[in-house]
Design a protein that fits this description.
The protein is an alpha+beta fold. It has helices at residues 3-14, 137-147, 181-189, 215-222, 262-278, 308-313, and strands at 36-39, 45-51, 58-61, 64-67, 69-72, 81-86, 95-96, 99-100, 111-114, 121-122, 125-126, 151-154, 201-203, 238-241, 246-250, 283-287, 302-303, 322-327, 333-336, 347-351, 370-371, 374-375, 381-383, 388-394, 400-406, 411-418, 421-424.
Length: 425
């Protein structure tokens, strides 16, 4: 039995059952952020809470109060208690201290995607973290909540405040930094809070959450696997299955973009083989680093893969059921289809424009452009100069209508995703 299910069973056995008319004792817990639901391996919904109290809060399941289990205890850098509890599949109502938790849909009809959300402070590069025009994550979170999604996917890179704000940069003055609770709260938990209870979340590890950067916060709060104090450089792929959609999540945080070291290629070849083994029909491969994106680094008419390691580790022929690769990492929005893919290569969509400093603008035509040896569709599109997020909704004839939206939720580009093909206008 998986560890997290064992915890739930123990919690249910020890939880008091309250008779009608009886009021349970009030938990002495102070939440440091709104609670949220992370979808874990096999699609298990896991309630998470962060508290400044000494004990975890309880989850109320329609009259049954179950104590959450400690996930990670406080430390000097993280003076908060991280708590979790899996949500049983038969539950129709769950709440934590009056916050109603979103439940998992049979199949999502409205999906929101965001990525690369933190405010960049690295050396002399300083984004205006105190200016919502320069760093609009709070606006984007409000727009996602207003969209009323059934599912939210974050494709990675949460923590960008790596260094102190430079003395000359008043627009980020006073910002916390480093892999600490203060920096995680400023970069993610405070601005994104409006969307926490809008829908369950799929959390993807980015290169800013690897062991040398923001890994402690990632494993304490967002990683879907059971907590381990020792950092893991690569975690196992897992599948989240719905009736009409399968998501397979691959941790690509340490995969080199600019070279393909043999040891890394072997690691990611095994990762992708495992991922494709658990893939089914109508699968989206969700991973932070995109193997087939374009940006200012692209050199027409023939450009290399945007991640050389993943491209080298990719299968010679992609399974028919893998229809889309959904990523972030490149700080823009784009949808790249492949017109005549002899290898069954899926389309590549990048949502890396949800808060952090955007890529420099560039001009690139998809006409006749080959990416890692395959011809890109002329109906591919990109947007370099707008912050925003993306939404997917199924269409009756099959496939999805996918909209790139600006920070306020207004559509910028409309795409149709059908099978392995994407066409935008």
């Amino acid at each position: 039995m998986p560890r997290i299910l064992r915890l739930l069973l123990i919690a249910l056995l020890i939880a008091p059952v309250w008779r009608a008319g009886e009021r349970p004792a009030v938990a002495q817990s102070v939440l440091a952020a709104p609670p949220y639901v992370v979808l874990g391996p096999d699609g298990t919904p896991i309630a998470r809470a962060i508290t400044t109290a000494d004990t975890c809060p309880t989850v109320s399941f329609a009259g049954l109060s179950v104590p959450m289990q400690p996930r990670a205890v406080p430390s000097p850098a993280f003076p908060v208690l991280s708590c979790e509890l899996p949500i049983p599949p038969s539950v129709f109502s769950a709440s934590i201290e009056g916050h109603h938790l979103p439940l998992v849909p049979v199949t999502p009809r409205r999906i929101a995607v965001l990525g690369d959300t933190g405010c960049r402070i690295a050396g002399s590069r300083a984004q205006g973290c105190n200016d919502p025009d320069q760093w609009p994550l709070a606006t984007i979170a409000q727009s996602i909540a207003a969209y009323r999604p059934d599912l939210i996917i974050h494709v990675g890179d949460f923590l960008y405040r790596e260094d102190p704000c430079p003395a000359a940069a008043s627009s980020c003055a006073g910002s916390p930094y480093g892999d600490t609770w203060a920096a995680w709260r400023a970069d993610w938990f405070a601005p994104a809070a409006p969307a926490f209870l809008a829908a369950p979340w799929v959390m993807v590890r980015g290169n800013h959450e690897v062991c040398q950067r923001g890994a402690e916060g990632w494993f304490r709060f967002l990683d879907p696997w059971p907590y381990q104090e020792r950092c893991q450089s690569v975690t196992e792929p897992y599948r989240i299955a719905f009736d009409e959609l399968n998501l397979v999540v691959v941790d690509s945080g340490v995969a080199s973009d600019v070279s393909a070291p043999e040891d890394q290629v072997e690691i990611y070849r095994a990762q992708l083989e495992r991922a494709l083994t658990i893939a089914r029909d109508q699968t989206w491969l969700v991973t932070h680093r995109p193997p087939y994106a374009v940006s200012g680094f692209s050199t027409p008419p023939d450009t290399a893969a945007s991640n050389l390691t993943l491209a080298a580790a990719a299968p010679a022929v992609w399974p028919e059921g893998v229809q889309l690769i959904l990523s972030g990492h490149v700080h823009l929005w784009e949808a790249v289809g492949f017109a005549l893919s002899a290898t069954g290569r899926p389309s590549q969509i990048v949502v890396g424009n949800s808060g952090t400093m955007l890529e420099s603008s560039f001009t690139l035509s998809f006409e006749g452009l080959r990416i890692a040896g395959e011809l890109a569709s002329p109906e591919s599109r990109y947007v370099t100069d707008q912050f925003g997020f993306m939404t997917f909704e199924p269409v009756a004839s099959g496939g999805w209508v996918a909209l790139a939206r600006d920070r306020n939720g207004y559509p910028m580009v409309t795409c149709t995703v059908r099978g392995k093909q994407v066409a935008c206008r």
